[in-house]
Amino acid sequence: MTVRKSWRRVDGVLLLDKPTGMTSNSALQAARRLFSAAKGGHTGTLDPLASGLLPLCFGAATKFAVDLLAADKTYEADLLFGVMTDTGDADGSVVERREVAFVASELEAALARFRGPIRQIPPMYSALKRDGKPLYELARQGIEVEREARAVTVHELRLLGFSGDRCRLRVTCSKGTYIRSLAEDLGRALDCGAHLTALRRVAVGDLAVAQAVTLDDLAALSEAVRERCWLLPPDTLLQSLPAVTLDEESATRFANGNPVGGGVAPGKCRVYGLGRLLGLGEVDDQGRVQPRRVIGSA
């Protein structure tokens, strides 16, 4: 007889070290089962090829997932020059091979072209949609459509290693940057082509993969130990914002969706009161804290 899973309310953030070969949603569902979490979401997709930091939100923390989606991300990427694939990474089929004839100084010069604000054409093998259909579905049908270049920012692009036709890069970039496209563009700049052979996300905003845990390590623990040792509070995603603590009357008003006084400098803030995190607020020019995302009481 099949035993039905008993879901429960779980509020918090899990920093997961996603393995390669697994989709982000599969990793999320596996973690949800381990915590018996009724509600969960992730904060930015990692391709199956990629490993590394995948922050997961359960319960109340899902209200703040969108804020982490906009955070800068840091990757370590392995590239193979002279070989191009239809997907821009090692999961695709080889479509062209070229001779690799550049030297390290030429690679460094090419990297300089991709630092700072750049425009990047998203890959066909992506989840972006055209007329309601993901581009990757069209790509699998052999259909290629024109994509508009998008403005992104590469804050750091550092060469970690280079040998023959391979290199490793460290990239810190803004939301919406495709590392596969960056690899292809770099190969194009060097007139030999390239594709991504491995990708590991090492940071999302202020969160680092060194703080993360694997699914295998979680599975080896009891549910109680998992929650005590690895589940972080919902305000983990808001630590870069100033904190505002309200008195009981103002806290009750804020929790009911009303603006209150007591703000600091204008901008977003994390709001506390009634002995707990109340949610995300935004201080206006009059010093009022406007509710933006409010956590309901348990």
From TrEMBL:
Presence of keyword Isomerase: yes
Keywords, in A-Z order: Isomerase, tRNA processing
GO MF, one annotated term: RNA binding
Coiled-coil ranges (or none): none
Entry-linked InterPro entries: PsdUridine_synth_cat_dom_sf, PsdUridine_synth_N, PUA-like_sf, PUA_sf, tRNA_psdUridine_synth_TruB, tRNA_sdUridine_synth_fam1_C, TruB_C
Protein origin, superkingdom: Bacteria
tRNA pseudouridylate synthase B C-terminal domain ranges (all copies): 180-238
HAMAP family the record matches: TruB_bact
Family under the similarity heading: Belongs to the pseudouridine synthase TruB family. Type 1 subfamily.
Protein name (database record): tRNA pseudouridine synthase B
Organism from which the protein derives: Candidatus Accumulibacter appositus
